[in-house]
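Kindly inspect what follows.
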Amino acid sequence: MSKRDIFSYVGESSAPASAWLTESIRRRRKIFNEKFIPKLEGNKWLRRFRMGAGWFLISSFLIFAAYLSLVSLVLNVRFYATEWMEGSSFGFVRVALNKIAFAMPEGPVSKYGDELSIVIPKIGVDAPIIAQVDPGNYKDYMRALKKGVAHAKGTYLPGEGGRSYLFAHSTNIDPRWVSRYNAVFYLLSKLRPGDMIFVWRDGKKLTYRVRQTKIVGKNDTSYLSVEGKKDELVLQTCYPPGTTLRRFLVLADLVESQ
């Protein structure tokens, strides 16, 4: 049928041309949709549920990715702030970096009073020590590490005249713990010989000086031995931070007890 015939037909019919064209377009769209667009099974509520579930999963993934990025940023600020602080010759810069790095303490003062605790000013550690934790019992030491730094069962307590073995996490993805107990030893690898460590026990302040730092295998348990009578601390955490590939150790000697 030619265009002239079409408009002649439309003109002869009672329906206006615009109505005929609208109906023609609707039919063409219907044929196209039935031929090329697959229909979803189920009713409209099921389709809405599937669509909502899809958007929920996508949103959850994006939120989790942003969450990990935030934690990574926080940990990196803490890790590098110590170097910036050491290299800063301006007091106000050091104070600002202290605040950015979660208010690292400037001096040997424990907020836990006479309770068994450890303070390392250089890396912002101020945490309680959980005594007599079995390092071979996963559930036991995981419970302890949620509260503070764990003291390995079978080693001396600080101040008893022998080796004290303390260990803690190097990192955790929960931002509530980044600057607290679950990541308390995140900056342990920043310690150098000569840095000071303070332990409070039974109303006494024990002062230790770092003698050596070293990296050992994850299965190396030789430093859990208590041979000898030297009063020393061994601090241990996973290394590199956030992995369980190796262990980072800090060895420190008692220099003062008051």
